[in-house]
Batch of 2 targets.
Target 1
Amino acid sequence: MQPSDAYVIGALERLAEIEANAARVARIAKLPDDAKFFQRSANAYTRALCYWLAGIRPTRTPNGYVLPSQRAGEAPHKLTMDGDWTCTCLAGASMHWAKALIIGLEVAQDDMATLGDDSPPEIPARLLDEDAALLELVAGADLALNLPDADW
Ligand SMILES: [Zn+2]
């Protein structure tokens, strides 16, 4: 069953926050590699959230999902479950927005099964109002980490 928007948005926001917290802890603990790893995950979930809010939706395939590339002329992300979600793009099994979106979808499905149809988690108003600010945040975080301006 396709979870409602509120569940997916809630799940992606929660996952981004968990990873961002882990990155903060790693920075405090002076573990730069871990900090970068968790920050990259946080960015992937935030980016997935931005794309979800922009109306990007995965298409179900017999063994996974397909998501359109967000870079002009590039092949779509084809994700299959092979122990972990693995993508046909350069990112492979490592964390990027397409994989983050599918994980968010799965978490949302679990949340919906647990909490039921009637009580979707509340969406913080700022998420609905400040898509642009979120996008800037992601772009800024990428720059700060000196990551390539990649689709993933
Ligand atoms: Zn991909």
Target 2
Amino acid sequence: METYIEANRAANGHHAGTSFACEDVTKQDFGTERYDHVFSNWLFMYLDDAETAKVFARIFDSLKPGGTFFMRESCFRQSGNKKRSFNPTKYRSDELYESLIEAASRGGFTIEQRAASETYIQIKNNENQLMWLFRKNLDATNAAAAAPPAPTSLTPAASLVDTSRVYVKNDEYGGAGCFASVDMAEGVEVERGIVRVLTNCDGNENPYVFTWSDELPNTTWALGSGCSTFYNTTEEGSANTHMIRDFANKSFSIVATRDLKAHDELLHVYKSKKWRTCFKVLNEGEAGQKA
Ligand SMILES: C[S@@+](CC[C@H](N)C(=O)[O-])C[C@H]1O[C@@H](n2cnc3c(N)ncnc32)[C@H](O)[C@@H]1O
């Protein structure tokens, strides 16, 4: 990596105000209101959701009011067709990226442009190389300084577990599901909680535990606090929530990926839905509906 940095320095070091660094982006401090523009390419697909949310918030804070942020990512699927035995890349949907950035900036970014790369469409017939230009709103409050969302219950902000915006009742499938207790805007934290990693548990058999790694096959399973067990799943594109897992801190945040009305059922796409034995029946149900 250092060799590339040196070559870049040799080619571009003469530009005023230029500095070069090779650092872990999740640990970098970008400062506050320093930059007019931030550019990133093929970065967030290599970070988990918790890291992505953190870096989005830092980029947002580092921009001057009215500043812009460009990013380009492979969405939905791999950009090439090379077979890989291990591929930890996250091919997120455009909806999910937009919800994560909405939540991280507390609605402080406006999407100025959204497009698929013409080059990839023409040469690779791939419409999933997506690019965004976000502009920081002039009146935005920086994420680090922003007050937490207005409480809707007596749950103190310091609580590791907050289920105050959710309730659980019988669902239409004969079990229990999670529902919004209040109206919530896209990006709002619906529920937060903690997990405990389980021993002697196989989540391929047990549908009530969480996949607690990005590895495949996954062998780490966890028990989630609060109402988290009771969220039902749905198809890509129909979800209204997303669970951001912070593996290291054994915690999660479930955020609204669209505006919610009180009593809407809260649905997210299970991370393990496609491969977990106990969810096979759910995929078959969907295939039947489409047929
Ligand atoms: C994590 S639990 C969710 C809570 C569950 N409904 C309950 O009552 O315990 C996962 C299980 O919920 C059910 N479930 C989740 N999403 C569903 C869906 N879209 N349609 C039918 N059943 C679903 C399936 O039985 C699945 O194995």
